[in-house]
Amino acid sequence: MRPTGWGIVLAGLVAGCRGVEPARLPGALDEAGKRAIADTVRAESNRMLVAMAARQIDSVLRFYGRQTAYVGEGEIGDWGAIVASAPPRYASYTHLDCRWEDPFRVDVLSRTSAVVTAILSCEKGNQAGERWLERVARTEVLAPEEGRWRIVAVHESMKPGTGALR
């Protein structure tokens, strides 16, 4: 029995669906490449904490993308409004000391995307003499933008009943 035209097409499609091993895809990252990106992202994350401690809001905002997507407190945030409200909020702080708690996880998804998942713990104080601790679970998506890794999406979640971010 001779194969028909459709039989040949079907056989070709099935053969083409076998898949390609991820390591053989063009541009796939090896473990050393992933480690290098993870180290860079980790360093940027720590540099952001230094800018936060110095209460340099312009420097802090440079760690974020131009149109960062924000989700927190059960809402999708208006990035423009968040950026506009940041300078007066930072000006009211008299104390700001943040650190990443362990585990601090960096997952490199590709040459152009990485995800940070961690608890950000911040001791804050304001001009009214109030002091408080904020512990927020964060997931950040980072991508290269204008020559450096920037946060392009962030989700923050405080433990229920512990107050709101301020």
CATH topology: the name is Nuclear Transport Factor 2, Chain: A
Order of helices and strands: HHHEEHEEEEE
Strand content: 35-45%
Helix content: 25-40%
Rounded to an integer in angstroms, the radius of gyration calculated over CA atoms is 22 Å
Instruction: Quickly name the level 1 CATH class.
Output: Alpha Beta
Kindly report how far apart the N and C termini lie.
Answer: 76 Å
**Number of DSSP E strands:** 7
Mean model confidence by pLDDT: 86
Work out the helix count. Answer: 4
Tell me the number of structural domains: 1
Low-confidence stretches: 3-23
Q: Structural class of the helices, strands and pairings?
A: alpha+beta
Sheet having the most strands: 7 strands, mixed
Structure description:
- Strand 4 and strand 5 form a beta hairpin.
- The chain has a single domain, classed as Nuclear Transport Factor 2, Chain: A.
- The protein contains four helices and seven strands, in the order αααββαβββββ.
- Strands 1, 2, 3, 4, 5, 6 and 7 form a seven-stranded mixed β-sheet that branches.
- Residues 3-23 have low confidence and may be disordered.
- The protein is globular.
- By secondary structure, the protein is of the alpha+beta class.
